[in-house]
Amino acid sequence: MHHDRGHRHRLPEASGSGGGDDRGSRARGDVVAVTDADQDFHEVLVDCSGSPRLRRAMRTLLLETRMLLGELQGAYPDLSEQVREHEVLCAAIGAGDAPAAYRLIDEHMHDAVTRLMARRDPGSVE
């Protein structure tokens, strides 16, 4: 997994593990602020890839990403759980553990889909 070392230092801050405002937002139950931090995390993660093509694709998908993150608002009864997923992923990336990072990304995406589907039809997905 290739990392842009110029942006890698931003991962802990973007994940919430840097102790920034995200932790306060979580504690206050400020879902909008946590969603904003969630989007920031995804943008920094893409920046860390060092791939101009991926960065362009991400800019194209930003609106859709924001809409999905908006849909996820309230899907996490405990906002800390959402931030923990990012912290664990950042730790794997920071350690250079590509297999773990890919697995965690896959789990994070599947978790989001499960939560979104449960919001659409609460009886269909647990």
Automatic annotation (TrEMBL):
TM region(s), chain numbering: none
SUPFAM superfamilies in alphabetical order: GntR ligand-binding domain-like (SSF48008)
InterPro entries: GntR_C, TF_FadR/GntR_C
Chain intervals with Basic and acidic residues compositional bias: 20-29
Compositionally biased residues, Basic residues: 1-10
Residues covered by region (Disordered): 1-29
One Pfam family recorded for the sequence: FCD
MF-aspect GO terms: DNA binding
Keywords: DNA-binding, Transcription, Transcription regulation
GntR C-terminal domain ranges (all copies): 26-110
Protein name listed in UniProt: FCD domain protein
Organism: Mycobacteroides abscessus subsp. bolletii 1513
